[in-house]
Amino acid sequence: MSPLSTVIDIGVLVFREGLECILVLAAITASLVGRRSRYQRPIAVGASVGFAATLLTWILAVRIVNDLSADIPALALQAATGLLAVVVLLIVMNWFFHRVYWTGWISLHNRKKQTLLKADDDSSASRARLIWGMGLLGFSSFYREGIEVVLFLQSYRLKLGGRPVLYGTLLGLFLSGIIAVLTFLAHRQLPYRRMLVVTGALLGGVLLVMVGEQAQEMQLAHWLPTTPIPWLAGVLPAWIGLWFSVFPTLETLLAQGLAAALVLGSYAISRRLAAHGWRNASI
Fold first, then answer.
1. Phi, psi of 144 (to 5 degrees)
2. Does a structural domain hold residue 69?
3. What DSSP assignment string belongs to the chain?
4. pLDDT tens string for the chain (283 positions)?
5. Residue 11 domain-assigned?
6. Domain interval for residue 252
7. pTM attached to this predicted model
8. Does residue 159 lie within any of the structural domains?
9. Is residue 236 part of a domain?
10. What angle do CA 124, 127, 133 make, to 5 degrees?
11. Total structural domains in the chain?
């Protein structure tokens, strides 16, 4: 892959996860005003600890993968880590999962927050327990997204080294930081739903790129057969393989088509069910 395309892909991926984290934190802190605004600080501290824990998880994951590389052929290890990243990304892009995520994950955090706030009204409640509870809400909101990013980026690191991963991560964090500043410091009401739709479409493109390259790696590792399409090889320009991992082989194209069908199919079915009365809370 082109280093620039890799940096952009990673930046989009990290930004998407950062946006989801900001949405969860915004939902938790929305009602913490007046006297209860003092609980925003432990939530922020918990999110900061989640960031540090994500860095430690990255270091641990790198060490584990490096140890495995001593015993497993490089192509096989790249294929395995890439396959894991694709599976996780397919789950993230699945619309049914997203509905369950937003109705379950955010609702769970809000219920826990309400329980802690009710305890705040009880004079006998332990203040330390409330502080720790709010801190854990901030921690879990960040660390869940952090684990996904760590899993995603292992495949990129194995293929291209740490520098493109670093640049892409910094790009994603920079964009996420802008949204965080506007949300928590400037108190701007941003169109989060539209932003998620746009980043979701971009992430869908990243998914197709990852699937195409993953299928090619599995061919190189002899996990998949390779069936060339000669007439397509003469039509496809070189840049489309470099930037979008579209290769003139039957297996890679089928893998990308199947991934697109799974994402678009889950969206179409979820919309149809919603139109017939299937209701779940959404953003």
1. -60, -45
2. yes
3. --HHHHHHHHHHHHHHHHHHHHHHHHHHHTT--GGGGGGHHHHHHHHHHHHHHHHHHHHHHHHHHHHHHTTS-HHHHHHHHHHHHHHHHHHHH-HHHHHHIIIIIIHHHHHHHHHHHHHHTSTTS-HHHHHHHHHHHHHHHHHHHHHHHHHHHHHHHHHH-HHHHHHHHHHHHHHHHHHHIIIIIS-----HHHHHHHHHHHHHHHHHHHHHHHHHHHHHTTSS---B-HHHHTTS-HHHHHHH---SBHHHHHHHHHHHHHHHHHHHHHHHHHHTT------
4. 677 888 988 999 899 889 888 988 888 887 777 777 888 899 999 999 999 999 999 999 999 888 887 777 877 887 788 888 888 888 777 765 666 665 666 666 767 777 777 766 665 556 777 888 888 888 988 998 899 899 888 888 888 888 999 999 999 999 999 999 998 888 777 887 788 778 878 888 888 888 998 888 888 888 889 999 998 888 888 888 877 889 999 999 999 999 999 888 887 887 777 666 654 444 4
5. yes
6. 3-275
7. 0.78
8. yes
9. yes
10. 115
11. 1
CA 276 – CA 250 distance, rounded (Å): 38
Quote the tokens at residue 8.
Answer: 């952009």
